[in-house]
Amino acid sequence: MAKIAKKVAAGREGIDRNKLYTLDAAVKLVKSKASAKFDETVEIAMNLGVDPRHADQMVRGVVSLPNGTGKTVRVAVFARGAKADEAKAAGADIVGAEDLLEIIQGGKLDFDRCIATPDMMPLVGRLGKILGPRNLMPNPKVGTVTMDVKGAVGAAKGGAVEYRVEKAGIIHAGIGKVSFSEEALLQNIKAFTDAVVKSKPAGAKGTYVKRVSVSSTMGPGVHVEPSSAI
Asked: Given 3-state DSSP classes, what are the helix, strand and coil percentages for the chain, each rounded to the nearest 5?
């Protein structure tokens, strides 16, 4: 425990918790402070001026990051016949119908993204209590309920990031790896924040983007001047 506390303290050294850094400076700090023995994920958190309990203030969508996420994404597809074959050819990791339903009901969720053809949704709907809380439920708004199975699998494998505002008005996502160049991370962050800004709901009043911070998996959060990030 003492070793971990020492590491955390060392990571925070040189970061002013009360300061708002420009996005460029924040990314530099996050990269320089990452000290884990693995390639840490760089994450962004955005506090939005919305109350997602109201339907007209929900923020959700999907964005393709120009430089990918650096993460190997496992994709499950609910489809039959030709569409199942299309999913397999596109690189889906798990493809099925009732058999896939049984696997998930048995507690095995060995995937990061779930896609379904529209005709499969009555079946997939039975998994709402399992997939919903994990943000894995296919949804036409983010392109995961579609007849374009090939395109959806390709997007998921190629760096598409789904985002959804949580109860406290916070959106967070992994937008790359510490091993990425600063430029690649900045491009990914800009693509992500642009998408969130474009998703501003009609019911949002006042300041939309209140706070922004970036961090690595094991590193401290660095507060970003919102205007430099959007």
From this structure: 40, 20, 40
